[in-house]
Amino acid sequence: RAPARNGRYGPLRAPDENGIAVPEGFTVRVLARSGYKSAGMVWHAAPDGGACFPDGDEWIYVSNSQAPLLGGVSAIRFGAGGETRGAYRILSGTSLNGAGCATPWHTWLSGESMPGGRVFECDPYGTAAAMPRLSMGRLTHRSMACDPDRRVVYLTEDEPDGCFYRFVPDEWGDLTSGTLQVLITGPDGSGPVVWRRVPNPAAVIEPARYQVPGARRFDRPAGCHYADGVCRFVTADGRVWCYDAAGHRLEAAGDPAAT
């Protein structure tokens, strides 16, 4: 386990009865454990990406399960005072759900982290069925981030020669159809970039990353986050890549030789 680091809220205290260390003034409450009941439902194995959604004076936490064959997404509903009010599944029948992100229209995108993996758009409120979004690509999904300024969704691919993608929906707020594009850079791997359409994003036989000549390769691109006009994502070689969406430029930070 990585050593604990002090943050902006002060030094960490000794681990509590749950084995969790937090700064002074913070307390910890365990809400769910894999294999044990939480709010009336057995919580899933291998929790991964998650997010919170408002619902009046209540709120909902959703969590991916990166378990093989029995992946999917579960949700816990909380009252205004933080009390649990129920738990339920919002996606079942999928595998290795690691990647995910919340959309501006309050749905949850959950991607399967395996070759040929799909993206599912899920309803955190549990009223609508989860739907596959095959136009977003069948690939080893790792992470996603919405860019409401350009109305696109960025995606990373967990492969040793994985790519960085963006999905441009035909209509923002509806991911049923659109165009999947892959990033292409110059010979040095940074600087100005262009995007090229992936001809057949739903193909299983020919992976998306091999469909466009010159697509930029990365060492297992993983978590990504969009804010203030920049989408940042990390790779296994220790780099943090910064895509300036307004300037169409890509720059890298971090020294892979030091990792």
Task: Tag the structure with descriptive keywords.
259 residues, mainly beta, nine-stranded antiparallel β-sheet, four-stranded antiparallel β-sheet, 19 strands, 0% helix, globular
Account of the 3D structure:
The chain is mainly β. The protein has no helices and 19 strands. The strands form 4 sheets. The protein has a 9-stranded antiparallel sheet, with no helix packed on it. A 4-stranded antiparallel sheet has the order 3-4-5-6, with no helix packed on it. Strands 7-8-9-10 form a 4-stranded antiparallel sheet, with no helix packed on it. A hairpin with a 5-residue loop joins strand 17 (230-234) and strand 18.
- Overall pLDDT metric: 92
Order of helices and strands: EEEEEEEEEEEEEEEEEEE
Helix-strand makeup class: mainly beta
Q: Which parts are unreliable, with pLDDT below 50 for 5 consecutive residues or more?
A: none
Largest sheet: spatial strand order: 11-12-13-14-15-19-18-17-16
